[in-house]
Amino acid sequence: MLYTIAVPRDLQAGDPRPLILALHPGGGSRGGPFLQQIVEPALRDWRAIIVAPDSPNRRWSVPSAEESVLFLLDDLLQRHEIDREQILVTGFSMGGAGTWFMATHHPERFSGAIPIASAPRDNPLDRIGAMPVHVIHSRDDQLVPIEPARAAADTLAERGHPTEFTELTGVGHYTMGGYVLALREAGVWMRQQWDKR
């Protein structure tokens, strides 16, 4: 699996860092631009290791992509000092759907999830457990309706899960740069949830 990785310059032995798994959107996208244009600017203050794989077959929820992502995570955990209590999965559009998929099918692997501009589809929300989830969606998304994302966040909140929903306006589906600030704020919220443990 091809991937782009950003490692903090001040990384030192004995200093475990958070890990951010960033799943890119569809439409022929790759992990590198998503990491560089959205995730790194939004979550730079985390001083985390950020990895953005390239989907091997244009979807994140198929077995080959799922296996590749899990293999990549295992490899990174062996090669880098990672704080296993601070592993975040996030993604946009198709990557957001992949975020929902990973959070519901492998909740033991992640400490938090931030799906952006995506719907949970048929993923079993009851499997998320106590993982904090911050959902980001725009009311003006012309491709993915906001209602399923809002309903999923409401369902999680009603079940007592640590959940937040950020609703944007004036941002379309194809203006990813308009989500950077919301992702930054979601990152602050996520760190607050982790600090409560």
Walkthrough of the structure:
This protein is an alpha/beta fold. The chain contains five helices and seven strands. The chain has one domain: Rossmann fold (3-Layer(aba) Sandwich), CATH 3.40.50.1820. Helices cover 36% and strands 22% of the residues. A seven-stranded mixed β-sheet has the order 1-3-2-4-5-6-7, sandwiched between helices. Strand 2, helix 1 (31-43) and strand 3 form a beta-alpha-beta unit.
Short key terms for the protein model shown above:
seven-stranded mixed β-sheet; alpha/beta; 36% helix; 197 residues; Rossmann fold; globular
Name the strands of the widest sheet in spatial order. 1-3-2-4-5-6-7
Indicate the CATH architecture.
Answer: 3-Layer(aba) Sandwich
CATH class: Alpha Beta
Q: Strand content of the residues, in percent?
A: 15-25%
Total strand count, please? 7
Overall pLDDT:
96
Helix content: 25-40%
Kindly give the count of domains.
1
**Which spans of ≥5 residues are poorly predicted at pLDDT below 50?**
none
- Number of H/I helices: 5
Which fold name is given in CATH as the topology? Rossmann fold
Oligomer: single chain
Brief synopsis:
Helices cover 36% and strands 22% of the residues. With 197 residues, it is α/β, with parallel strands linked by helices. The chain has one domain (3-8, 16-195): Alpha/Beta hydrolase fold, catalytic domain (Rossmann fold, 3-Layer(aba) Sandwich).
Strand-helix topology:
Blueprint: E1 3-6, E2 17-23, H1 31-43, E3 49-53, H2 63-79, E4 82-92, H3 94-105, E5 112-116, E6 133-138, H4 147-158, E7 163-168, H5 180-195
Parallel strand pairs: 2-3, 2-4, 4-5, 5-6, 6-7
Antiparallel strand pairs: 1-3
Helix pairs in contact: 1-5
